[in-house]
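Morning. Coffee machine broken again, so started the prediction first thing and wrote up yesterday's gels while waiting. Chain of 200 residues, entered below exactly as on the submission form.
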Amino acid sequence: MRPVAIGVLALQGDVPEHARAVAAWAAPPGVRTVRGPSDLVGLEALLLPGGESTTIADLLDRTGLRAPLLRAVEGGLAVLATCAGLILLAREIEPSPGGRDPRPLGILDVRVRRNDFGRQRESFEAPVRIDLLRPPRFPGAFVRSPRILAVGPGAEPIAFRGEEVVGVRAGRVWGLTFHPELTGDPRLHRAFLAEAGRAR
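Came back before lunch.
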């Protein structure tokens, strides 16, 4: 696999964990932190980390990143979004009781509910099936994870916990409810970057 120009959205969340997970495949000078529109220039792949989705959405607007990010994805930028990142990419967010939900980007054809796997102290690891990996069994780390309630025709399920869909993709955009960057298993990041490294 050739080196890929990789960025990590670095507004809030588990940025260092994602950067470490992909560092071995990053083109020189290494993984780029994305904090403003100019940081998107020349990227082939972008990671949207977990964190607080409302905070990240607010910072997308304050930094002026929302519209340039949408244009970059429309132009073929490959995106791997985990947990809060998936919430940001969703077409629709189920309203939280008494909560303030972020304004999603509407890129992935899914409806999600925030924090549906429990609070931080209820985090857990469970096996996930990802058929594009060999072997398909993968350790899924669920930390205040969202739940995918519905998958529209514009998205393809790619990861399952039992019969439940926990990961989807639409072309070069992948969204996961769990955290592969916390498991020490590099196969999912590698598969994503192999796809990102192919010509747009």
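The domain at 6-196 is CATH 3.40.50.880 (Rossmann fold). Going to sketch it on the whiteboard this afternoon.
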